[in-house]
C-alpha cells in the first residue's frame, strides 16, 4: 500500500477470490474489517475496483468509504465468469 500511495495512481484494482465476508488471497483469507483498516488510510481522492466474486457488498463499501476520502468502490456482488472480471479490470484502467 505504501507503493500505491507513492505512485500517485488514482485507481486501485484487486483481482482475487472472496465471498461476502472476506477476500481470499494466495496464502490467506483477509476479513473485511482487517482489509478496511489496512486500506482506508491510502484511499483519499482515489477509486477502488474489484474483480472478485461476491466481494462487493454494502458492508465492504461502508468500510472503504467511511472516513477515507475514497471517491468510489465498484465490483460485482455475485459470482462472475472470467469475461466479466476482464471488463471490471478494463474499467479500472480507463
Please give a structural write-up.
With 94 residues, the protein is of the alpha/beta class. 35% of the residues lie in helices and 22% in strands. The protein has four helices and six strands. It has helices spanning 2-7, 32-39, 58-65, 82-92, and strands at 11-15, 17-18, 22-24, 29-31, 47-51, 72-74. It has a three-stranded parallel β-sheet with strand order 1-5-6, with helices on both faces. A three-stranded antiparallel β-sheet has the order 2-3-4. A hairpin with a 3-residue loop joins strand 2 and strand 3 (22-24). It is globular and about 30 Å long.
Q: Tell me, briefly, the overall form.
A: globular
Radius of gyration: 12 Å
Order of helices and strands: HEEEEHEHEH
Percent in strands: 15-25%
Sheet with most strands: 3 strands, parallel
- Class by alpha and beta content: alpha/beta
Beta-strand segment tally: 6
Mean pLDDT score:
86
Helix content: 25-40%
- If helices are DSSP runs of H or I spanning 4 or more residues, what is the number of helices? 4
Order of strands, main sheet, comes to 1-5-6
Summarize the model shown.
With 94 residues, the chain is of the alpha/beta class.
Indicate the topology.
Blueprint lengths: L1 H6 L3 E5 L1 E2 L3 E3 L4 E3 H8 L7 E5 L6 H8 L6 E3 L7 H11 L2
Parallel strand pairs: 1-5, 5-6
Antiparallel strand pairs: 2-3, 3-4
Helix pairs in contact: 2-3
Features:
94 residues; alpha/beta; three-stranded parallel sheet; three-stranded antiparallel sheet; 6 strands
Amino acid at each position: 500500500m505504501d507503493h500505491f500511495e507513492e505512485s500517485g495512481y488514482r485507481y486501485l484494482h484487486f483481482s482475487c477470490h472472496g465471498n461476502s465476508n472476506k477476500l481470499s488471497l494466495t496464502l490467506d483469507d483477509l476479513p473485511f474489517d482487517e482489509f478496511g483498516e489496512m486500506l482506508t488510510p491510502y484511499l483519499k481522492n482515489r477509486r477502488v475496483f474489484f474483480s472478485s466474486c461476491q466481494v462487493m457488498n454494502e458492508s465492504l463499501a461502508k468500510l472503504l468509504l467511511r472516513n477515507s476520502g475514497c471517491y468510489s468502490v465498484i465490483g460485482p456482488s455475485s459470482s462472475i465468469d472470467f469475461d466479466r472480471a476482464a471488463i471490471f479490470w478494463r474499467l479500472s484502467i480507463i
